[in-house]
Amino acid sequence: MQIRIGCGKLSKSNLKNFAVKKISKKEIDAILWLMIRQDSLGVVHAVRYDEVCEDTHMTKPHYYNCITSLENKGFIEVLDKKSSKGWTIKVLDNNFVIGDDDHKGYVNINKDFLYSEEFMSLRANEKLLVLNLLPFMQKIMNTPFASLNNIQEQFDRVNAVYVSIEKQIKEWTGITNRQLISSYAETLKKFFSVAFKTERNRVNKSVYVFGVSRMDIFEKGLKPISYYYLRQEIIKLCLEHKIKYRSADVQADLDDLIKLINSYSDDGLPCLFELVNESFAKLGAIQPKNVHYLINTRISRLEQSA
């Protein structure tokens, strides 16, 4: 059984509970930050408030309030907050170790726009609508809608998303006020095509019809899902050895080291991180070439002893 590296998923059970437990807009940003960096079991190492604040545009008090609230609501568990290497946090009910775990349902959160200022500026319920719509939008990617007219023309043929005011939006967000829903739908036009119509076949129920209007937000993902997980693990080692990793002049070396570890990941991550730790302890800096040398040396020894 090959265990996955990284995750890039939001379980549908967690998404459903976002509305039930009235998660705030900042809490959504914080938990997405954690999820994109978690390992397949939900654990994130080296979580530092300054990095979360910088990436999510929140203040230090907001960060601590979010972490406390997310833990109280049962979305995360803080495993270690005493370490100088940053906190260790586990995202609960978000395990995706093997392919069979996918059957419980998930939303692909490896989307660049989910970490943009444009998305972060949305209200909590608007973010919930976007996250709930993403799986449906992926299903109709092969027949994109170019305009509102196009949506209406292709609505029945493509079987696009029917969103009943009385039912689905209430389920997704917990709200029933039509004026509020209308304002949310208007805001979402920056991401989706949105039309409003009455479906006669549904006993004259008024529904919103959402379609794909901006292909870039569905096609443009972040780096490979392993990237942010591996980055967090390397950052943890950097903190242990007091190695600077945030300055612009070391980002290329950091990226090269992540790519190197990823390319040899089939050989076993614990062994690879052991060699990264050895290199950091010796050189006190991020040196991908040295780590590559140590990897090749280890492989040669294993081949000779085989």
Summarize the model shown.
The chain has 306 residues and is of the alpha+beta class.
Descriptive labels:
single chain, alpha+beta, Arc Repressor Mutant, subunit A, 3 domains, 3-stranded antiparallel beta sheet, 14 helices, 51% helix
Tell me about this structure.
- This protein is an alpha+beta fold and 306 residues long.
- It folds into three domains: 9-110, Orthogonal Bundle (Arc Repressor Mutant, subunit A); 124-219, Orthogonal Bundle (Arc Repressor Mutant, subunit A); 241-305, no CATH class.
- 51% of the residues lie in helices and 13% in strands.
- It has helices at 12-20, 25-35, 49-56, 60-72, 117-120, 124-139, 148-158, 168-173, 178-187, 215-219, 225-240, 251-263, 269-283, 288-305; strands spanning 9-11, 43-47, 76-80, 87-91, 106-108, 161-164, 192-199, 205-212.
- It has a three-stranded antiparallel sheet with strand order 2-4-3. It has a three-stranded antiparallel sheet with strand order 6-8-7, with helices on both faces. Strands 1-5 form a two-stranded antiparallel sheet.
- Helix 11 packs across helix 13 (269-283).
- The chain is elongated, with a radius of gyration of 22 Å.
- The protein starts with 8 loop residues before the first strand and ends with a helix.
